[in-house]
Amino acid sequence: MNPCPCGYLGDPTGRCRCSSEQIQRYRNKLSGPLLDRIDLHLTVAREATALSADSSHGESSATIAAQVATARDLQQQRLPRPARPAPVLRVIHSRPDLAGKRL
Predict the structure, then answer these.
(1) Does 101 map to a domain?
(2) DSSP for 51-102?
(3) Is there a domain that residue 49 lies in?
(4) Considering the domain boundaries, does residue 35 fall inside one?
């Protein structure tokens, strides 16, 4: 559960702008009996995240595309036919037996 509607209450950057009334209304949404069933309450610090275009992390798109192509080729060798049966076969194999018709 977030500590407040915006989720930034207690954040060291001070990003939370929720009033005490907003926080109280948010916390009152969970009833007392429900909160009594929760045995463990933890305060977890927010993980620092950074989105950057730094290409030193991970693999390039070309490398990943080559890996996908290799995986598809291997799958094709293992299972050369289509994964789904033809529509005609689906109709034949999905007909109910006598017990199924009686239902």
Answers:
(1) no
(2) ----TTSS--HHHHHHHHHHHHHHHHHH--S-SSPPHHHHHHHT---HHHHH
(3) no
(4) yes
Alpha-carbon distance 67 to 71, whole Å? Answer: 6
For 54-97, what is each residue's pLDDT tens digit?
A: 556 678 889 999 999 999 888 888 776 665 655 555 555 667 77
> Whole-model pTM above 0.85?
no
Q: Is residue 79 part of a domain?
A: no
* Boundaries of domain holding 12: 1-39
Q: Structure tokens of 39?
A: 């045995």
Is 69 buried (19+), middle (13-18) or exposed (0-12) by CB count in 10 A? exposed
